Amino acid sequence: MNFDFEEYLRRQSIRPVPAQWRGEILRAARAQPVASPWWREWLWPSPRAWAGLAAAWGVILLLTVTAPDERAAGGRGATSARQAFAMLQEETEIIAQLSVSEESRPAPPPQPAAPQPRSSRRLRQSVG
Amino acid sequence: MSSAANLERLYDEHAQALFAFVLNLLRQEADTRDVLQELFVKVARNPPLLQGVKDERGFLLRLAHNLAIDLMRRRAARDRNYEQLAADNGALFAATDDPDEEVFAGRLAEALGELPPEQRAVVHLKLWERLTFEQIAATLDISPNTAASRYRYAIDKLRARLRLLYDEIK
C-alpha cells in the first residue's frame, strides 16, 4: 500500500518551467560581468604602486642574496664584542678603585661655627 | 565550451528540476523565477563554481535550496507568511485530462503545502528527483537519518490526508 501510494504520488508530474523564462534568465545571467578573483579586486585600485613595492622587495631580496657571507660577518661581530667586554671590565675596575679610595680618605675637619648675630655679641660685651 | 554555451547547457539540463523543486518550496511562480535567475546569475558570475563538481544536479539543487530558504526568511520577516502561501496552493502540477487525477493533484498540492518546508523539500527530492537519502542529506546539509525520518513523517501525513481519495481512485 505504502509503496503503491508513493509510486502514485511520483506519477503526478510537476508543471513545466515557463518557456519564456529561458531567454529572460539566460539574458540576465549573461549580462553579469564575470567576477574577478578576490586578489585582483584587492590589487586593482593601485596596480602601479603594488608593482613598485614588489620591485623594491625584489631589489632588497637581491641585495640580501648577493651580500658577503654571514659567517665572516659573524666572526667580526664576535671580535668586537670581546673588545667591548674587555673595555667594560676595565671601566668596572676603575670605578671600583675610585670608590675604595673614596672610602679610605680621612673625614674633613669640622667647619668653624657661623658668626653670631650682632645683637648677641653686644649682649656678651656688656655682661663681660 | 564557451561560458555562454555552458550556461545554456546547464539551463536545458537542470532548469526543469530546479523549477519544480523551488516551486514546491515557495509556491509562488514569481519568487521561483527570482530564485532561478539569481542562481544562474551566480553561476555566470563565478564560472569556476562548478569546476570539479561531480554531481551538477545535486550541486544546483543545493544552491537553489539555499537561495529559496534565504528568500523565504527575507520575505517572511517582511510582509508575507509563507506557510499560509504554501497552504494556498500555487499551481504545482501539470494539468491533466483525467478529472480524478486533476482532483488528486490539487489535493496533493494542498497537502504538500501543509507540510513544513523542510519535510516538503525531502519529499520532493525523494519522489520527483529520485534521490537516495544520502544524496538528499548532502543536498540539504542534514544527516541521512534526519532525511529518512522527515520523509517518513511527511509520507504518513500525506497518506492520512489523501487516503480516502486515493482509495477511491484506485
Describe the protein.
The complex is a heterodimer of chains A (128) and B (170). With 128 residues, chain A is an all-alpha fold. Among the domains of chain A are: 30 residues; 33 residues. Chain A is built from six helices and no strands. The model of chain A has no long low-confidence stretch (mean pLDDT 77). Chain B is mainly α. Chain B has a single domain, classed as Winged helix-like DNA-binding domain superfamily/Winged helix DNA-binding domain (Arc Repressor Mutant, subunit A), CATH 1.10.10. The longest helix of chain B is centred in the last third of the chain and has 26 residues.
Summarize this structure as a short list of keywords or feature phrases.
heterodimer; A: 128 residues; elongated; B: 170 residues; mainly alpha; Arc Repressor Mutant, subunit A; 77% helix; globular
Itemize the secondary structure elements and their pairings.
The complex is a heterodimer of chains A (128) and B (170).
Chain A: H1 2-11, H2 20-30, H3 38-43, H4 47-66, H5 70-104, H6 118-127
Chain B: H1 3-26, H2 29-45, H3 56-78, H4 82-87, H5 99-114, H6 117-127, H7 133-140, H8 144-169
Helix pairs in contact in B: 1-2, 1-3, 2-3, 3-7, 5-8, 6-8, 7-8
